[in-house]
Amino acid sequence: MIKQSFFAAALFTGLIAGAQKMADPSAFAKGITPEVLKKHLSVIASAAMEGRNTPSPGLERAADYITAQFKGQGLTAGNQGSYRQTYQLTKDSLAKLELKIGDNSFNADEVAPLFTNGESVHLKFDNYAFTGYGIVDKGRDDYAGIDVKGKLVVVFAGAPKGFTPSQEGRMASTALMVKIGNALKKGAAAVLVAVDAIPPRFKSKVSYRPSWVKKSATAQPPVFFIGKNVVEKTSGYSFEDVTAALDNGQAPPEVKNAVMTLDYEVQKNVATASNVLGVIEGTDKKNEYLFITAHYDHLGKDAAGNIFYGADDDGSGTVSVLTMAEAFARAKKAGKGPRRTLVFMTVSGEEKGLWGSEYYSENPIYPLDKTTADLNIDMIGRVDTERKSADTLNYIYVIGHDKLSTDLPVINEAMNNKYTKLTLDYKFDDPADPERIYYRSDHFNFARKGVPILFFYDGMLKADYHKITDTVDKINFPLMAKRAQMIFYTAWEMANRDDMLKRDLKLPETAR
Asked: Which of 61, 128, 275, 351 could lock 347 by a disulfide, CB 3.0 to 4.6 Å apart?
């Protein structure tokens, strides 16, 4: 659904009139070109960056490149003389992983942790609850007739052939995290998720997590993947035969007797990662701030050494930040600098759980109550393969427009209508959005602190999303440049208007 909001004529006219009194930003926006964006992205999403995993040498090389660009553009260091805001991670190195089921023993090639709360695990059970696909939905409950409280629960990933969940996306009853959540709600002491092949990124012998996250007093029970070999050795049937039986209703949920032990031990150390900040100081309102953000990390490499280049996700946002910073720097040199201080921040750890932006929001360098807004860019270089509209090559998804501040859509729509005339699509701003996009990028850590946000996004959830094929050659640079120019114009107005954005809307309960 495309929804375009048009506000009262007087308010709209007043905004444009105010913008006209300022310097014309179009001369500076012209520097945001497909050629400049491609030049930067060809570095950020190159093989030399090795997928920019958090943490990794490739991520550090990307941070060095971003820092060099900020310096070269004349931006000042954003953190008390440093361009970096460094944060610590806990590094967990696998020391032991063994699962025993009866007489069969399995190691780290066949078992992998999905969630352990960062702690070692030592468990023993005399039985386990087999729950099939573990689906709980309208008219279906794979836990019916069995009590799993205090037990080890075994659940298969996926869904039976022909089954249609009542919801879509991440809230679907067939989604892995929903299944795990249902098992835990029903009292599972631990969960084993059976899969045909364990996802490569979970088979790493080293994992990281934020060091500042406190351990919960009621820690979540551990969750592990088990591969097809575990299923076949313990059941005596092929993995395909077991799933076929599940599909045909011939493998009902039940509690089975078997001695099972699970031993998982980690050695702990410390690692670091960083956010990169460059600043253009404002003039008469320099103690108020506008953030323009993107995450520069991605997924690194898989076990076979294949690189996840992350050209769109989020190389496109990262280089848009760099190019907008250069445009604003040129304006400042021309005596047309912003009234408010602009903070250009590229964050790390987004792909792991919004780590960098969470750290910043809990340890802000600039007062959050003086931060007028955050404009976050996460994937603006592609065309949504699921989008069938006639305006496929002239759109951008905008998230956050109707939350926290009524000024957000007024400013964004006015500047877009005046300069770029993109279709602003609000589909993902729907509270019922099954993909829960509002929660899935770094703007959320500003929003939860009350800072108005707009999030700009191309909607690419299919095709090359989180695949090694997200490469520079797939980017639509003319469309990306137009989108980045629109964000630049929006930032220009926010940085130069008389007042900070109002904070006159509450964040919906569902978005807290």
From this structure: 275
SS3 content of the chain, % helix, strand, coil (to 5): 35, 25, 40
Q: What is the mean pLDDT of the chain?
A: 92
At residue 464, φ and ψ (nearest 5 deg) are -100, 10
- Domain 91-268 is found in CATH 3.30.70.660: no
User: pTM of the predicted model, to two decimals?
Assistant: 0.86
CA 399 – CA 116 distance, rounded (Å): 33
Distance, in Å, from the CA atom of 106 to the CA atom of 409, rounded to the nearest integer, reads: 55
Alpha-carbon distances, residue 143 vs 39, 170, 178, 255, 490 (angstroms):
54, 21, 14, 11, 51
Token duo for residue 288: 């108020």
CA 419 – CA 486 distance, rounded (Å): 7
| Domain boundaries, given as residue ranges, for the chain | 9-90+270-506, 91-268
Q: Which two tokens stand for residue 136?
A: 């709980």
H-type alpha helices, 204-298: 228-235, 239-247
Q: By three-state DSSP, how is residue 223 classified?
A: strand
Nearest to 278 by CA among 364, 346, 207, 200: 346
Q: Which amino acid is at 178?
A: V
CATH assignment of 9-90+270-506? 3.40.630.10
Quick one: DSSP state of residue 418? I
Q: What is the amino acid identity at position 32?
A: I
Is 26 in contact with 274 (CB distance < 8 Å)? Answer: no
Assess contact for 87 and 78: CB atoms under 8 A: no
Task: Tell which residue, 70, 57, 24, 48, has the closest CA to residue 319.
Answer: 70
- Per-residue CA distances from 185 to 60, 140, 190, 429 (Å): 40, 16, 12, 29
pLDDT at residue 85 is higher than 70: yes
CA distance 487 to 396: 10
Q: Which of 319, 304, 278, 294 is closest to 45 using CA atoms? A: 319
